[in-house]
Design brief:
48% helix, Spore Coat Polysaccharide Biosynthesis Protein SpsA, Chain A, alpha/beta, disordered C terminus, nine-stranded mixed beta sheet, transferase, 9 strands
Length: 325
Amino acid sequence: MKARYSVIVPMFNEEEVIQVTYERLKKVMDDCGDSYELVFVNDGSRDRTAEIMRGISNADEHVKLINFSRNFGHQVAITAGMDYAEGQAVVVIDADLQDPPEVILQMIAKWKEGYEVVYAKRLKRHGETFFKKITAKIFYRLLSSMTSVEIPTDTGDFRLIDRKVCDVLRGLKEKNRYVRGLVSWVGFRQTMVEYVREERYAGETKYPLKKMIRFALDGITSFSHKPLKIASYIGFFLSFSSFIYLFLVLFQKVFTSWTVPGWASIVGVNLLFNGIVLMLLGVIGEYIGRIYDESKDRPLYIVSETRGYPDAEIEDTRKASDYAK
């Protein structure tokens, strides 16, 4: 019998919290009064996360485990969970307990009302620095202004999606994935529940500044071509300004006795314009790099081990065959 609800939990080095996460999720899903599965996706953890989860999976038939061969990234781990999820309603929640599992029951209630996507909107974000809060706020507003797809602000990947939405997302083959943006892009009937985001239960964040910047770039370049248009506008403006400046220099040389001596101004102008040109080439390079990633057509992830699944492979062109089960 297939589970009615699937809860996807991506993990990376979560040995300090994963036992508590499992216990809270189990209590919540037992309270929902219907069949369920907990799909834990181990994204190449280097601590005891996989070992702990093997023990939990062996003891609880509701728990299923997917181990990656290496770290493929948070968004890919969510995607893998969707590939393996069997439920009619699929919930995505992180393992760090910043998103309270108890909110899942509110999402299920909205789903039963007929909504096909129920996302969780953060009213407050406890335990996060001012820098992270302000940069997140700026990013969501910037992304909203740059794309025609309405992506809800102050939301993460914590959400419930209907089976039909999950199946549509499985058919999207892009490599640089921004799942919350893809969920908004596919449409369907959507609503929200509000909650207060708690401090991380234990361990440290898996999104340091470098990964946050990479994540932001994925979001912007996946859903907006405006940076390319802005690069074109700046390039045109600089070319026009240079042309005007050339006429000014020629006029000074021919009709006046005053010319700028030395080389400082020339060097200054060259540095300014060359810096801007390199910046614009960097923007274009981001898009070209993504085209390159898509053209290689490699599997999105590789599974080294699964627990709790039948021997038959789950067919999906995005992943390589399981090497061990």
